[in-house]
């Protein structure tokens, strides 16, 4: 296996939001069938990856991120090195964490994708190229394949099947980060339980009919049918998140939605000026939420050296 002469690599990886998210059913193995529109945004983590004599080491500047084998970047490195046949070397991964954790913004998945890409640069391309790379990414996590693809994509299956879509315009957005973390596994269990008990979700009536091409490639996504099936169960347990959604609406956002399973929410604005005015208004006089500005981006990652 070829070894790189590089001492280290730096890569910036970008967060995502879901412009639509429909949960279609439960699959074997704990996964769920879904249909979603991913969109990368400018919030990012920066990773530094360098070879080590034989051990995978993860360091992160956030106390909320595990540094052991449960870290998705660690999982990605383990699987990638194994698939490459590298048995006598490891990597050290340093994560400068700026993407909020447990907020539905895909930070852990972005980190995992960045590690896969960096290891290929350091140790050689995975046998089988894209097919192996995307299959390995899917085995780490359902959102990881998109973080190799980037920009905007319609995804289905468990999220591993994708059709890349054009990003026609850079849309400004505000991201609200509550102090309440929401676990994705908990959100899926809550949704499964609600469906098993026969509870209709607020979004059920919006879930019929095909997506229209002109909608999914529109600047802000499918405005007429924008929906997130997690919202009813998440808001039922955390009503303050519903209040945060109303706050975004009141600030003048054209579209407001929970991202992924939350707890992060986003609002899309027609102009940067409207977004910046909204950021000032929402930040004033409250400390229940952190509010940050971002924009749509056309890529999931970029190498920095």
Mean pLDDT: 89
CATH-level-2 architecture of the largest domain: 2-Layer Sandwich
Count of separate DSSP helical elements: 9
Task: Assign the structural class, choosing from mainly alpha, mainly beta, alpha/beta, alpha+beta, or little secondary structure.
Answer: alpha+beta
The domain count comes to 2
Helix content: 25-40%
Unreliable stretches, pLDDT < 50, 5 or more residues? 200-208
Helix and strand string, N-terminal first? EEEHEHHHEEEHHHHEEHEE
CATH topology of the largest domain: Ribosomal Protein S5, domain 2
Radius of gyration: 19 Å
Q: Which band does the percent of strand residues land in? A: 25-35%
E-strand count: 11
Per CATH, the class of the largest domain reads Alpha Beta
Q: What overall geometry do the principal axes of the alpha carbons give?
A: globular
Biggest beta sheet summary = 7 strands, mixed
Separation of termini?
A: 23 Å
Structure in words:
- The protein has 305 residues and is α+β, with helices and mostly antiparallel strands.
- The chain folds into two domains: 158 residues, Ribosomal Protein S5, domain 2; 124 residues, Alpha-Beta Plaits (2-Layer Sandwich), CATH 3.30.70.890.
- The chain is 31% helix and 28% strand.
- It has nine helices and eleven strands.
- Strands 1, 2, 3, 4, 5, 6 and 11 form a seven-stranded mixed beta sheet that branches.
- Helix 1 runs parallel beside helix 2 and helix 7 packs across helix 8.
- About 3% of the residues have low confidence.
